[in-house]
Amino acid sequence: MSDKQRITVLGSTGSIGVSTLDVIARHLGRFRVVALTAHSQADKLFQQCQQFEPEFAVLLDADAAQRLQSKITAAGLITEVLHGVEALERVSSLPQVDSVMAAIVGAAGLRPSLAAARAGKKILLANKETLVMSGRVFMDAVRESGSELLPIDSEHNAIFQSLPRDFGRGLDVVGVTRILLTASGGPFRSKALSELEHVTPAQACAHPNWSMGRKISVDSASMMNKGLEVIEAHWLFDAPADRIQVVVHPQSVIHSMVEYADGSVLAQLGNPDMRTPIAYALGFPERIDSGVAPLDLFRIARLDFEAPDLTRFRCLDLAYQALRHGGTAPAILNAANEVAVAAFLDEKLSFLGIPSVIEHALEQISTVPVNCLEDVQEADRQAREIASEHILNRSLSNASPFTLHPSTNT
Ligand code: NAD
Ligand code: MG
């Protein structure tokens, strides 16, 4: 048996998945891809299968899996094609797998990420929604199985790099006073509240620094992404809400910082390219080439910092509230946000409607403590129902939601 790191890439056709395979392709002597997965992109997954020849390829969608199977057979590849959520869980917990890159988007990533945690795999966690929804259940599973958990989100990866290795003993114990979570501020950082009502999905997805999937791009524009990341940091580093300060830093060069009791602040800097945190986690504890260009500080010339504006970016405020409330509140926030973002991308909800839908769901649904996955799943189900109903009612009472976006998809 080879001593290569054997890896499953969940969500391999997405933005993070493609960047992960790009780094892996630079180190074929070090990594072996065991499984690749996607929602329904059979063609793209087939190309990846040709390149990496994994043992398994999984599509959520059964019809897409059939299309992939025909291509795999015609090409004479040995890859076994599977479909469905159980198959995603299976390839996350196979005995021959060492590491799992968890890069499915949204709540759908929860079950496979959890399967990897329960199986004691090294987890490269991009799917922040797993921690937002069920941080306690997931972190308990990581601890019980002895999984190694490496954050991929650039901010959390930066924090991880800036913390001492024994931070698990407690932030106070290791002299950490605050986590400074940087935020680019997104494409609407300097837009007035009145202008935000009419922004389009295309504008929201045009991030100034990062190229990402559509859902996280909208989250960045609303700053819900930063809200989800505050909750993510809470679980990863056992940090209370008051110790996590969001700092708007438009250049996205400092990816986050850690402040210590002696006044030191440690930061991780780099070009905004996800291959850096991905390579860090893939190679950990060694450093490997990521393909990212060196940072040119003379070209960057300056670094700016601002306090976040919680009036214009209500989603960030709602996320702090949900974290402080605890229990199933973050799961409700996350599910209502997913429904609202999908409606916004579908031009059925205005941009400023997103926080209103989330606030409504948080008000309407009673929260419970999270003792098991079912508590989270029930909160997620209720929040989706309430959010969908609310969006429908809003669009019935507003003459037409479509008039909100007269010039989209330009
Ligand atoms: P993406 O939309 O580009 O890709 C998502 C991947 O998940 C695709 O392979 C897709 O086929 C698969 N997928 C989607 N729905 C699925 C479902 N229901 N079941 C199974 N598979 C499904 O998303 P992305 O931008 O790569 O983001 C992935 C995750 O990483 C998200 O949780 C995001 O918050 C996080 N993240 C992304 C970035 C980034 O730069 N893109 C940065 C930090 C964190
Ligand atoms: Mg991030």
Descriptors:
alpha/beta; 17 helices; binds magnesium ion; four-stranded mixed β-sheet; 14% strand; globular; seven-stranded parallel β-sheet; 410 residues; disordered C terminus; Rossmann fold; binds nicotinamide-adenine-dinucleotide
In short:
The protein is α/β, with parallel strands linked by helices and 410 residues long. It has 17 helices and eleven strands.
Q: For the record, what CATH class of the domain at 5-151 applies?
A: Alpha Beta
CATH H-level superfamily of the domain at 5-151: NAD(P)-binding Rossmann-like Domain
Q: Give the N-to-C terminal Cα separation.
A: 53 Å
User: Which runs of at least 5 residues are low in confidence (pLDDT < 50)?
Assistant: 399-410
Structural Rg: 21 Å
Helix content: 40-55%
CATH architecture identity of the domain at 5-151: 3-Layer(aba) Sandwich
Q: Would you count the extended β strands for me?
A: 11
Number of helices, where a helix is a run of at least 4 consecutive DSSP H or I residues: 17
Question: Taking strands numbered 1, 2, ... along the chain, how are they ordered across the largest sheet?
Answer: 4-3-2-1-5-6-7
Strand content: 5-15%
The CATH topology label of the domain at 5-151 is Rossmann fold
Oligomer kind: single chain
Hetero compounds: nicotinamide-adenine-dinucleotide, magnesium ion
Which descriptor suits the 3D outline?
A: globular
Q: What's the helix-strand series?
A: EHEHEHEHEHEHEHEHHHHEEEHHHHHH
Q: Roughly what is the average pLDDT, rounded to an integer? A: 95
Helix and strand content put the structural class at: alpha/beta
Q: Mind summarizing the main beta sheet?
A: 7 strands, parallel
